[in-house]
Amino acid sequence: MKIAIVGTGYVGLVTGTCFAELGVDVTCVDTDASKIERLRSGIIPIYEPNLELLVEKNHKAGRLHFTTSLEEALPEVEIVFSAVGTPPDEDGSADLRYVLQVARTIGRNMERYVLVVTKSTVPVGTAAKVRAAIREEQDKRGVQVPFDVASNPEFLKEGNAIEDFMRPDRVVVGTDSERARDLMTKLYKPLLLNNFRVMFMDIPSAEMTKYAANAMLATRISFINDVANLCQAVGADVNMVRKGIGADSRIGNKFLYPGCGYGGSCFPKDIKALIRSAQENGCRMEVLEAVERVNERQKGILFEKLARHFGGIPNLRGKRVALWGLAFKPGTDDMREAPSLVLIPQLLEAGAEVVAYDPVATDEARRRLGGAVAYAADAYGAVLDADALVLLTEWKEFRLPNWEVVGRAMRDRVVVDGRNIFDRNELRALGFTYYGIGVL
Ligand SMILES: NC(=O)c1ccc[n+]([C@@H]2O[C@H](COP(=O)([O-])OP(=O)(O)OC[C@H]3O[C@@H](n4cnc5c(N)ncnc54)[C@H](O)[C@@H]3O)[C@@H](O)[C@H]2O)c1
Ligand SMILES: O=c1ccn([C@@H]2O[C@H](COP(=O)(O)OP(=O)(O)O[C@H]3O[C@H](CO)[C@@H](O)[C@H](O)[C@H]3O)[C@@H](O)[C@H]2O)c(=O)[nH]1
């Protein structure tokens, strides 16, 4: 089977590489020529565990190709996946410019049947717009080449993308033709041989499923962050409460970790887009409006804790603050909407000095923040002469540090644990002042 994937970002590159790994002949297309050039020489543009090896292996095996030309790839393939970006527009709605660009290129160039599958996260009604754009381009050419559209939203998590793709909880496919359904069944069959978890549904429901899933997950996070802050105020321990409620199988224990707010390329933009889409359709997503507000507030909580500890914002002037972690979560160099991007400007504004360490996101941080922040070569280097240490990203290498060494290196033993990963009793026994999220 031959397919093309348009857009070689997180989703496109992972999807293309994983299908190639299953024996499909995949052409990855991107308009970014330098990205394609680097991919051809084995350099992948993102940090994603194991991805580089898989790209190299399948590229060498001749199953994974890279090109800037969708026009050239089109005659060869039965299915085109569109996995281009859908960034937020000024009003929060999803910007469909790239999705429709791809549709128009297909309409302008197709000579035989193709199934056009949208993998990007798009609002309900996008498949209809894609279909209309292809038809319009065909009309301009005076041709009527048959095609189908389908929706196949992606649920992978950055940092665990290959595993999520290869072993999905479910695959959601929205179709409205038998031919499209057969093609998608054929493609996904090898991935889910023994447990065929493809859920076929109508296209609008598939489009909505993606937003509703992210909205539900973000709601759990804001909910537990709210509970955590109340726990702190009334003297309860959110870690105990989280376990207590998570043991109820109706609630479950996943995605209930309090922290310094959710970030990343998906939750913030998708929540905004769903709120906006509701407004455009005469509805209101009141729960999600609150989810967003809680998350904005939560991203400021680490700064509040530091300011309170030092007796007010003016006292942060001249303080040296060490940060462990810059990425929005472990396993990635992605800093989009990361809590670190809220805390760092607050600290700099207050006149504090910031020294940061992240195992993989330092280059990305330099690109975004320039010379405003100093970068240490390792976790211990970051805490040298620091007045406080703030944990922002729960990378595994931060979980069991040698606190004796950390304590000796620091000027003042203050730890703000933005992800509740440290043992507060151990730290306090060693003379640290410890602040967590929703724990005393
Ligand atoms: N990142 C994730 O974890 C994730 C997970 C699930 C779904 N999604 C959704 O998938 C979509 C893609 O996300 P991403 O993070 O992979 O985006 P990304 O920004 O990393 O990559 C998008 C790529 O598309 C390319 N592109 C744009 N217009 C093009 C065109 N006309 N032709 C060819 N290439 C073009 C860009 O150059 C870029 O390389 C978004 O809708 C996102 O919401 C993302
Ligand atoms: O209990 C939790 C779980 C996550 N987070 C935070 O939530 C954000 C998002 O984390 P995660 O969902 O693991 O990462 P993403 O890669 O953004 O993945 C989400 O967004 C993708 C893009 O739509 C979807 O495909 C995934 O299913 C969905 O989990 C991060 O800042 C995490 O720190 C918490 O604060 N508490």
TrEMBL record:
Positions with a binding annotation for NAD(+): D30, K35, T86, T121, E158, K269, R336
Gene Ontology MF term list: NAD binding; UDP-glucose 6-dehydrogenase activity
Gene3D superfamilies in UniProt: Cytochrome c1, transmembrane anchor, C-terminal (1.20.5.100), NAD(P)-binding Rossmann-like Domain (3.40.50.720)
Known catalytic reactions: UDP-alpha-D-glucose + 2 NAD(+) + H2O = UDP-alpha-D-glucuronate + 2 NADH + 3 H(+)
EC code: 1.1.1.22
Domain of life: Bacteria
Protein's pathway: Nucleotide-sugar biosynthesis; UDP-alpha-D-glucuronate biosynthesis; UDP-alpha-D-glucuronate from UDP-alpha-D-glucose: step 1/1
Biological process, per Gene Ontology: polysaccharide biosynthetic process; UDP-glucuronate biosynthetic process
Entry similarity comment: Belongs to the UDP-glucose/GDP-mannose dehydrogenase family.
Function: Catalyzes the conversion of UDP-glucose into UDP-glucuronate, one of the precursors of teichuronic acid.
Protein name: UDP-glucose 6-dehydrogenase
Organism: Rikenella microfusus
